[in-house]
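=== RUN LOG ===
request id: a7f3
mode: sequence -> structure
chains: 1
length: 162
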Amino acid sequence: MFTAGVLTISDKGSRGERRDESGQVIQRCLAAIGIEQKQHDIVPDEREAISAKLRDWADKGLDIVITTGGTGLAPRDVTPEATRDVLDREAPGFAEAMRKHSLDITPLAMLSRAVSGIRGRTLIINLPGSPKAVSECLEAIAPALPHALETLKGQAAECARE
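=== RESULT ===
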């Protein structure tokens, strides 16, 4: 079983003024594919707070960290920058797949600045903040997550096809 951290980025959520529905959607979707949530936190839209939590969880050995919120165009949306601050390598296919899938649903998907990548052996993926968008994005990437995590851990079998 793989382990996950779910980090919600929300000024209002961090002050207790908004319920974390997106974090709950992520937990349910991960559980459905056999990934156990071990960590959950809510931080404000502050670049250093976000990157510090990502760094901490990845360095503690979580297999995947998924963020929700702060990926749009608003001035306080700094999740992609905070994520890039901690990545060793980008893995853009996840963000590309989410945008492609979401564009079939709404043209507003092109406003997403979400990124994805690797720190050590931890996969980090940014998701939007709305529960509906979170569900749609996870629908797009969930089939690839187990193999991606197996590959990061050196556990994957050869994936080439004859």
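=== NOTES ===
The longest helix spans residues 47-59.
The chain has a mean pLDDT of 96.
=== END ===
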